[in-house]
Design brief:
The protein has helices spanning 9-15, 20-36, 38-42, 45-52, 57-70, 76-84, 89-111. By secondary structure, it is mainly α.
Length: 112
């Protein structure tokens, strides 16, 4: 994916897989992509958000983590809908942490 400069569509399936070990592998790969190429990492934000409502709560928490790592301020209003929506406490906490991660990234950029 790094060489092709694109996130393969099947990768989103791995990132939202119900089996934890599959998701974990995809999350580790995604963290590496984000670290090496933030713009490439941002390609996952839209497709992951599109799948969000159909996921179980545990998977949602992992997706929210990736959205926080890969996303920018544009995703914050969507994450805020999770905070005010009919989600469990853990999912809302993950949404809050994702928002904090994004805000921290962008506040650190303005300081430099």
């Amino acid at each position: 994916m790094m060489e092709q400069k694109t996130i393969f569509p099947a990768f989103f399936y791995l990132q939202t897989h119900e089996r934890w070990s599959v998701r974990l592998g995809a999350m580790v790969a995604m963290e590496e992509i984000i670290e090496q190429n933030k713009m490439l990492g941002e390609q996952c934000v839209g497709p992951l958000w599109e799948r969000f409502s159909a996921l179980n709560e545990q998977v949602r928490g992992d997706v929210l983590y990736i959205l926080g790592e890969a996303g920018d301020r544009d995703i914050i209003p969507k994450l805020e809908t999770v905070l005010s929506g009919a989600y469990n406490a853990e999912t809302k906490e993950a949404a809050g942490e994702a928002i904090e991660t994004i805000e921290k990234k962008f506040s650190n950029r303005s300081v430099k």
